[in-house]
């Protein structure tokens, strides 16, 4: 396949570093570090999976050049003391054995540091928080700026001593250097504020100091937010202007985008097409003639190849794509493209964990983040029949895993197609990326000779008994929650009714006209599903009202989706009614109680009830009764255990390994 994608597999030499291919894992915080900032063995395993998977360059997540002041998050890596060198050296040695090059991103978080963790007021260019509701920072004194410049230089020197092949200075994404570069956060009147040259001065000093410390042969990358996508923020044109002050000593521009307030363009929302932001790298490359990295939802090798072939960028950055599939490069190189497990840009396990919840990252589609990636090398020690009832993503993961370790596995699905709710949701145009997950699963299942799939199958206890199971997996999914509210059950999802669940909406998705200007849509429930419905209808011109019982809309969502949906609600003037309870459902209105206790009619042409999902368990009681006198374990997973997100179902599906261990098949 190297011939199919010659540009992806063309080596690239930058100063004394030669990359074997053009895929760079972009820096991504993991929360895998030790509390003292040391790299852990969890880290090393995680990066090693990606090195083994063929990645040309791994750019390690942002490491602090000056802690605690510049610290970015619990368990962030540190590189501000020589004590960190030995572990980092051990790390680079392990990565190099797989032929990967390694760099590390060095950073000071500035106003994005949190006083609760650092014990001090954060610092920045001015006294402006780096995100809405963030802490007010203290403007840095000039001497402090020069001190931090030195810290960057020392950090880069340590990176070199630890065996890294290059270093990346983080000057984007609302961290300290970006806070100086962006007019949204820099209101200084000294030589570090005002004109582009002044705002660029701090970063320029850092670049010069780093070069001084690492010498002439060591590549320096600089990551920038080329388009900040913020009111009053740097546009691409502004960035092209200030880069003149950096370009002399920089070897590679890592052309990212977005600030904290526009994070959906930095950690791309799922509807943004593969490689949508390569125009930014192209512009930087055209102006300065330096190698550039582009990234952003790039999952498809054809898109990566095309960007390289056109010369829009020289390196393809892949972040989440490599969390989801550490072997992306090897699969593309060795003719296993159909096996790619593409990231669906859900942001649940990665950004949701790292930024939203401050816990170690996981992945919706890859339950081997971050353990047990070689489970499939194990094989059962005695025959074992596994029957999986329900072919959604949880059931598919359980069935594939069981079959991969040698169980004779039967997957029974009621519907005609496999994939469950994720296939249905992916029919909403903005959610189409979600389909990549069931597609991958179905393909994986189809290659397993000991996995027998029965669709259009209304499972009975007798049928399950006939398959002589040792383990039964119940993965029968969920249905929309419909509380006992006057009028709801009489109207919802009925043929001639205007009141529907998301399931019915999807069934009717091709019947809604493209232009629905003036139509009124009311959505009860402001969670993930309600917001999907909101997006669909606002984009068609409808006036949308969201009714939510909680004090906030988007409760529990990952920070990217939250930021994106908030921007859309603002853009489309969505009426947001929080602390508001549904009282009664009619065919043309919802009757609600406002926080003030008033009863109000919310008229609609289309009304949707999105109050979450509840477990659907049509057969589990009968199975438990039928197998009560046996050793057969009934393992209930995914939404049929408790309606949650895809990530929990996938993880529980993979955990069939634990059940097999318990029963000593493994
Ligand atoms: C969990 C997570 C952590 C991230 N941490 C960093 C970081 O430390 N430094 C950085 O420059 N970008 C960071 N990013 C941004 C990614 O490097 C990348 O640019 C972005 O996810 C878009 O590329 P992708 O669509 O290939 O994931 C992070 C992204 C995620 C999802
Ligand atoms: S959790 Fe979602 S966005 Fe993150 S890497 Fe996995 S699939 Fe992609």
Question: Which key features would you list for this structure?
Answer:
single chain; 666 residues; alpha/beta; five-stranded parallel sheet; 23 helices; 28 strands; binds flavin mononucleotide; binds iron/sulfur cluster
Could you describe the 3D structure shown?
- The protein is α/β, with parallel strands linked by helices and 666 residues long.
- It has 23 helices and 28 strands.
- The strands form seven sheets. It has an eight-stranded parallel β-barrel, surrounded by six helices.
- Helix 13 (393-404) runs parallel beside helix 22 (646-654).
- The two termini are 36 Å apart.
- The model has no long low-confidence stretch (mean pLDDT 96).
- Iron/sulfur cluster binds at residues 320, 323-324, 343-350, 363-365.
Compact description:
The protein is of the alpha/beta class and 666 residues long.
């Amino acid at each position: 396949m190297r011939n199919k994608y010659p540009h992806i597999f063309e080596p690239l030499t930058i100063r004394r570093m030669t990359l074997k291919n053009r895929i760079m894992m972009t820096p991504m915080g993991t929360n895998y570090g030790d509390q003292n900032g040391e790299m852990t063995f969890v880290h090393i395993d995680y990066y090693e999976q990606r090195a083994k998977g063929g990645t040309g360059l791994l750019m390690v997540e942002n490491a602090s050049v000056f802690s605690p002041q510049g610290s970015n998050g619990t368990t962030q890596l540190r590189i501000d003391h020589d004590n960190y060198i030995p572990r980092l050296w051990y790390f680079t040695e392990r990565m190099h054995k797989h032929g990967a090059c390694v760099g590390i991103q060095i950073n000071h978080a500035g106003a994005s540091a949190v006083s609760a963790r650092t014990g001090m007021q954060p610092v920045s260019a001015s006294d402006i928080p780096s995100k809405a509701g963030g802490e007010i920072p203290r403007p840095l004194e000039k001497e402090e700026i020069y001190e931090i410049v030195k810290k960057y230089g020392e950090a880069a020197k340590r990176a070199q001593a630890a065996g890294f092949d290059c270093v990346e200075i983080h000057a984007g994404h609302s961290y300290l250097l970006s806070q100086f570069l962006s007019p949204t956060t820099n209101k200084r009147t000294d030589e570090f504020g005002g004109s582009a040259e002044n705002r660029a001065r701090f970063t320029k000093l850092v670049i010069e100091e780093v070069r001084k410390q690492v010498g002439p042969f060591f590549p320096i990358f600089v990551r920038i937010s080329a388009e900040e996508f913020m009111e009053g923020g740097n546009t691409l044109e502004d960035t092209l202007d200030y880069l003149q002050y950096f370009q002399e000593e920089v070897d590679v521009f890592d052309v990212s985008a977005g600030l904290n307030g526009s994070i959906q363009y930095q950690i791309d929302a799922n509807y943004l097409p593969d490689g949508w932001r390569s125009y930014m790298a192209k512009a930087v490359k055209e102006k300065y003639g330096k190698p550039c990295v582009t990234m952003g939802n790039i999952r498809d090798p054809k898109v990566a190849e095309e960007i390289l072939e056109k010369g829009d960028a020289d390196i393809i950055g892949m972040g989440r794509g490599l969390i989801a599939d550490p072997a992306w490069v090897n699969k593309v190189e060795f003719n296993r493209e159909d096996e790619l497990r593409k990231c669906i840009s859900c942001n649940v396990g990665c950004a949701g964990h790292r930024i939203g919840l401050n816990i170690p990252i996981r992945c919706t589609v890859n339950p081997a983040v971050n353990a047990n990636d070689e489970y499939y090398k194990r094989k059962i020690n005695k025959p074992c029949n596994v029957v999986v009832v329900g072919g959604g993503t949880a059931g598919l993961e359980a069935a594939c895993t069981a079959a991969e370790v040698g169980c004779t596995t039967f997957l029974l699905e009621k519907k005609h197609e496999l994939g469950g709710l994720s296939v249905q949701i992916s029919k909403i145009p903005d959610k189409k990326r979600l389909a990549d997950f069931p597609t991958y699963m179905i393909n994986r299942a189809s290659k397993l000779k000991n996995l027998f799939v029965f669709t259009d199958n209304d499972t009975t206890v007798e049928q399950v008994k006939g398959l002589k199971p040792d383990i039964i997996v119940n993965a029968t999914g969920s249905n929309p929650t419909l509380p006992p509210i006057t009028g709801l059950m009489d109207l919802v999802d009925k043929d001639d009714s205007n009141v529907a669940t998301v399931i019915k909406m999807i069934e009717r998705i091709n019947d809604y006209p493209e232009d629905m200007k003036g139509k009124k849509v009311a959505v009860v429930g402001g969670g993930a599903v309600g917001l999907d419905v909101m997006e669909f209808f606002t984009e068609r011109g409808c006036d949308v009202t969201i009714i939510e019982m909680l004090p906030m809309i988007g409760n529990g969502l990952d920070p990217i989706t939250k930021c994106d949906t908030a921007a859309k609600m603002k853009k489309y003037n969505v009426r947001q009614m929080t602390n508001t309870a549904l009282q009664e459902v009619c065919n043309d209105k919802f009757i609600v109680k406002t926080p003030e206790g008033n009863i109000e009619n919310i008229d609609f042409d289309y009304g949707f009830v999105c109050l979450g999902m509840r477990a659907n368990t049509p057969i589990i009681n009968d199975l438990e009764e039928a197998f009560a006198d046996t050793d057969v374990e009934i393992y209930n997973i995914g939404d049929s255990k408790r309606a949650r997100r895809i990530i929990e179902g996938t993880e529980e599906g993979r955990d069939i390994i634990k059940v097999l261990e318990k029963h000593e098949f493994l």
